[in-house]
Write a structure and sequence with these properties.
With 105 residues, the chain is mainly alpha-helical. The chain contains five helices and two strands, in the order H-H-H-E-E-H-H. A hairpin with a 6-residue loop joins strand 1 and strand 2. The longest helix is centred in the first third of the chain and has 13 residues. It is elongated, with a radius of gyration of 15 Å.
């Protein structure tokens, strides 16, 4: 398992795999809106596999990748990283963004 927080592009790939389940590179590439290019997504997913963020089933011609569930991994400190990179260090902006995203009971 990689000990550093995933990059924004790695998180985008992880989100696709968490939502869709095990998928081929082509499926992930299509879900990302075909930008970046296919070869870029392929290389990124190969590196993520080497770093322990993805597992890969090589039994079929097209390899099928699965995301490791790192959302509860304390060593990654994802929320702190997200707060810093996206919300300029503001915890309140992070929480408000999450609350406006979906209804809260």
């Amino acid at each position: 398992m990689s000990k550093k927080s995933p990059t924004r592009s790695e998180l985008n790939i992880l989100k696709v795999l968490w939502n869709k389940g095990p998928s081929t590179v082509k499926t992930v590439w299509t879900e990302l809106g075909e930008t970046p290019g296919y070869n870029g997504v392929l290389k990124q997913m190969q590196v993520m596999h080497e770093n322990g963020l993805l597992s890969r089933d090589e039994s079929a011609r097209s390899h099928v990748y699965s995301a490791e569930d790192i959302r509860d991994e304390p060593s990654l400190d994802l929320l702190k990283d997200l707060r810093t990179k996206v919300f300029q260090g503001s915890a309140s902006k992070l929480v408000l963004s999450a609350l406006t995203e979906s209804p809260v009971s």
